[in-house]
Specification:
single chain; mainly beta; Jelly Rolls; eight-stranded antiparallel β-sheet; 3 helices; globular
């Protein structure tokens, strides 16, 4: 059976520990940025995704006694929460030291990827997920964005551990890339005319709409605001054009809509949607999800993914998003993200697994021409010398293209066939491996795509068992 393996960056460069630059921090993450040459635009940000909550949980294995099972059991029994990375102590800088580097720390919308081997559902804007908001299963804190320093390829994020409450976003609109947040007022805070209504939204209800919606303090969260709908039959929140930053950069991309909703009594529905055109005909909105019931009590997170038409250019002024609720409720946050593609969007194929001695094997490769998540190892180091490797994603674009190589391997003779080629980003490549009277039997065909960079990285690998026969009756 064929399997695509996303291969990591070589770990050799992260293996040699650098001098500890920040004496009052106990931990650091080692982030490797490739030497990209012309692939790195002058104002382009580096973006990593590290699931900091999950990383904090794994750090028990670095802390000696606290990792013992009986200690974990005691901590659970007394309700002690594990310490997590404290954002207040984050300090990012190059390996060689120097001034701290400004960064933005943001949420990645959507749940974690399915387990290995499970099929990923194609987003259609009609299927979404609901979950209690405190669990944060439908968003994960960990997009780390920064402006790289020319010539620097290794960066260290120093930090200490602290209370779970101190693991929170630290966003900087001037640093994060445009696609991380497309909502200009995600928490309904903008109220320049002081009328108690969000400036960038409108509200419709069956009667007296102005009376039944307003900005209020969140229950139990002094100083934090939310939007409250008090009409017994609910109503519809509609966007003004200025609420979103939608433009031609969104064309063809994934789009994720995330919202947090709370109701004192069970809410029977209804729907949330975005007016961006859908990827597939017939013409419709890219997101239009009937989310169903919301249980009474705590906050719930709603999340739905779609894809925008590749022909999208700009949003017409009359187009508005609509958030429709069937009863009294509160809306705390609304976010829209246009994330990079998942790595399985790259296509790699070998056309057969049985062939004749003098036949040919066809190979196929095509990459996306937009950003993609690339799986890389990130080394977590403790000041006292302990190390832990964790998985992360680096946002890549591979503008420099790819080197493609296929090898046919025999157990007895080693490499008995080889094909090489190059492909530009976003372009397809086809290759042919001609067999030269090879002996019948089983072979392994390994097909690799590597980045065309000074320090090459294996982007994807496809392996397939090939059986060579002399007649169709074998």
């Amino acid at each position: 059976m064929a399997a695509i393996v996303i291969a990591p960056l070589s770990e050799a460069r992260a293996a040699e520990s650098a001098e500890w630059q920040v004496s009052d921090r106990e931990y650091r993450l080692v982030l490797i940025v490739p030497e990209t040459g012309q692939d790195q635009a002058g104002n382009e940000r580096e973006v990593f995704f590290v699931d900091f909550k999950e990383t904090g949980r794994k750090m028990d294995s670095m802390d000696g006694v606290s990792s013992f099972p009986f200690v974990k059991s005691i901590n659970r029994a007394i309700g002690r929460k594990p310490d997590l990375p404290d954002v207040n102590t984050f300090r990012l800088q190059a390996r060689k030291g120097g001034a701290p580097i400004l960064f933005s720390l943001d949420y990645r919308l959507g749940g974690p990827p399915p387990p290995s081997g499970e099929r990923r559902l194609v987003p259609n804007g009609r299927r979404g997920e609901k979950n209690p908001a405190p669990e944060e299963k439908l968003r994960r804190l960990g997009f780390l964005s920064f402006q790289p320093i020319p010539g620097e390829t290794e960066y260290h994020l120093y930090f200490n551990l602290g209370n779970a409450e101190n693991l929170r976003e630290k966003t900087d609109k001037n640093i994060r890339p445009w696609w991380i947040e497309a909502v200009t007022d995600p928490c309904f805070e903008l109220d320049k005319d002081n009328d108690g209504k969000p400036d960038l939204c409108l509200f419709w209800a069956k009667e007296s709409p102005a009376k039944f919606w307003k900005i209020v303090s969140q229950p139990g969260q002094p100083g934090k605001k939310c939007l409250e709908i008090s009409h017994p039959a609910g109503g519809t929140v509609r966007s003004r054009p200025e609420l979103y930053q939608f433009d031609r950069r969104s064309a063809g991309r994934r789009v994720i809509l995330y919202q947090q909703v709370q109701a004192d009594n069970e809410l029977s529905g209804q729907a949330i949607g975005l007016p961006l055109p859908n990827f597939k005909p017939p013409p419709d909105n890219s997101i239009n999800w009937y989310f169903g019931k919301i249980p009474a009590g705590g906050w719930n997170e709603l999340c739905v993914e779609g894809r925008v038409s590749p022909l999208f250019d700009r949003l017409a002024p009359e187009k508005r998003s609509e958030f429709w609720y069937t009863g009294p409720c509160r809306i705390r946050e609304t976010h829209v993200q246009f994330p990079p593609e998942n790595p399985d969007m790259n296509r790699m194929a070998i056309d057969t697994d049985i062939t004749y001695q003098t036949d040919e094997i066809e190979l196929f490769w095509k990459s996306r021409d937009s950003e993609i998540f690339f799986d890389v190892p990130v080394v977590l180091e403790g000041k006292r010398g302990k190390r832990l490797e964790i998985r992360a994603d680096r946002v890549e674009n591979w503008r420099e293209g790819f080197v493609l190589e296929a090898k046919l391997i025999s157990e007895k003779s080693g490499i008995v066939g080889k094909v090489e080629g190059e492909a530009e980003c976003g372009k397809q490549w086809r290759g042919t491996m001609r067999l030269a009277d090879l002996a019948p039997g089983k072979y392994l065909l390994r097909f690799e795509a590597k980045s065309r960079r000074k320090i090459s990285e294996t982007v994807a690998t496809l392996e397939k068992d090939i059986r060579i026969i002399t007649s169709p009756f074998e």
